[in-house]
Give the backbone structure.
Amino acid sequence: MPRIILSLGKKILWELTLVQQRTTIGRAPHNDVVIDHPAISAEHAMIGIGQDGAFLEDLNSTNGTQINGQPIRKHFLQDRDVVNLAKYQIRYLAEDDSVQPDENLSQNITNRLNDGPIAKVEILHDQFRKKEIPLIKPLTTIGLPGAYVVVIKHDVAGYMVSRMEGSQAPSINGRQLGPKPEILKHGDLINVSSIEMRFCLA
């Protein structure tokens, strides 16, 4: 699935898997991606996902939006496009990024762990059916910052899921996820804000 990585200079702030049709970006707290900077408009831009792929649209922001250094109003996103918003950068990564990793991100995106079986998450939501998120890093975040986020951790003990933020607690096999991380088993169903996912061991 497509992802975005928000960074400030050389510092990566967070990484987000895009699982919604519309992801808004702006200074106001109701946005999905909140960037608290005076040069960012309250509702600055949005990323949409349609049948033709992902696109970014400027929402009549005061200072505009640039992609790869060029001002845009609407732009269909290509793998590794860089969105410039004030001092911040948002890098768009297409779903095949795990096959051909970007060398510039090699110090920040950890390679596959060698111990234990490799796992993935299958998205069961109608819009994203048959989409998969490979769990090849020690930490994988899924969701929208400020709305709901879960983290799947991979270490020698296996794969564990925990709630990171959001007003609605995610559930595992129909049972609400508690405050402590839980070990995932093959076939477990994870529900995050009405989006159902299946955990699968290879």
Q: What stands out?
A: The chain has no helices and 21 strands. The two ends are 18 Å apart (CA to CA). Residues 96-115 have pLDDT under 50 and may be disordered.
